[in-house]
User: Which sequence fits this backbone?
């Protein structure tokens, strides 16, 4: 049994990864600051679900080395999967300092504290945003990295931090994953599938940036957590970078058609100009992940839409977001660090 620490473990991907690892009979501690970038109540729901399955919740911030060190040592952590970040390409345009500080300084803290406290493996989350404008498709790991958003710059800088760490401390085992547009149930409120499904079911207008012909490699979260687990356990993953996607290229308009088919409701659309920080197309070459990790994506964008629509209905998502109860007051086994 491996003791995993998942930073950002109460978020969208972190929640699914924690449940996956617990299903593999691993020990899981989630480390999260429950920030208000979106409703902390949604994150607490995710965390409580993990806790019910045997996971441990630690409330802490990656900007605090002391909090990270305490969480790692108290829970005898062997492997860290670092998901915590300030997300949002468009958000980073208005708040570049947030993306840069949290993503760069936070990752530096995770790397140094992990290495100095006996962690054997650290898997660091980057992003397909490091590539910027697409030069060729599909995009392999050697595709030029010229980010066009502050978020992309912050993630590319974290990759450079890992590279320096690998050079100075070659015995420390690290891997980097570059997720491509992760989708599925419990997705953040600012992400496409959540917006599309929620607004269709509420009969609200969806704003489309551009003509909708832009494409993405939509990666089901079930595929993504498989990749994280494989990167954590496979010896061949050491000091490697992996693009992780579905290996498919599907337009926004095609996804809207899937949403209409799943919900039985035609979306109401309004078009506006493309955001300058958004790339037009992404399409992952996942050959390296298949070859070295044994990664094989099995779930599709259609599965993700169905999963989110079912989740929306199951939890009465509209009322959930409108709830005045944003943070749980009963903390149970949660560990909280004082400043």
Assistant:
């Amino acid at each position: 049994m491996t003791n995993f620490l998942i930073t950002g473990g109460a978020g969208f991907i972190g929640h699914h990864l924690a449940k996956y690892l617990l299903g593999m009979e691993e020990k899981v501690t989630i480390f999260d600051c429950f920030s208000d970038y979106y409703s902390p109540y949604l994150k607490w729901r995710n965390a409580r679900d993990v806790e019910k399955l045997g996971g441990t919740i630690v409330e802490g911030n990656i900007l605090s080395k002391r909090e990270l060190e305490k969480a790692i040592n108290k829970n005898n952590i062997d492997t860290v999967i670092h998901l915590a970040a300030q997300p949002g390409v468009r958000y980073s345009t208005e708040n570049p300092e947030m993306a840069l500080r949290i993503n760069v300084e936070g990752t530096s803290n995770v790397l140094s504290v992990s290495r100095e406290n006996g962690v054997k493996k650290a898997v660091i989350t980057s992003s397909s945003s490091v590539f910027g404008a697409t030069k060729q498709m599909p995009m392999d790991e050697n595709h030029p990295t010229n980010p066009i958003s502050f978020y992309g710059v912050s993630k590319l800088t974290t990759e450079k931090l890992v590279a320096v760490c690998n050079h100075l401390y070659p015995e420390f085992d690290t891997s980097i994953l570059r997720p491509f547009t992760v989708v599925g149930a419990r997705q953040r409120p600012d992400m496409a599938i959540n917006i599309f499904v929620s607004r269709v079911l509420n009969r609200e207008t969806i704003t489309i940036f551009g003509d909708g012909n832009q494409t993405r490699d939509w990666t089901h979260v079930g595929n993504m957590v498989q990749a994280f687990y494989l990167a954590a356990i496979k010896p061949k993953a050491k000091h490697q970078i992996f693009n992780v996607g579905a290996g498919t290229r599907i337009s926004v308009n095609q996804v809207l058609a899937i949403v209409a088919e799943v919900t039985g409701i035609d979306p109401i659309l309004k078009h506006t100009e493309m955001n300058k920080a958004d790339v037009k197309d992404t399409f992952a070459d996942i050959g390296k992940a298949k070859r070295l990790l044994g990664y094989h994506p099995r779930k599709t964008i259609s599965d993700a839409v169905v999963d989110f629509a079912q989740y929306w209905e199951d939890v009465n998502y509209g009322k959930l977001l409108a709830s005045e109860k944003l943070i749980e007051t009963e903390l149970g086994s949660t560990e909280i660090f004082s400043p």
User: Anything to note?
Assistant: Residues 3-180+221-245+282-296+326-336 form a domain with the Rossmann fold fold (CATH 3.40.50.720).
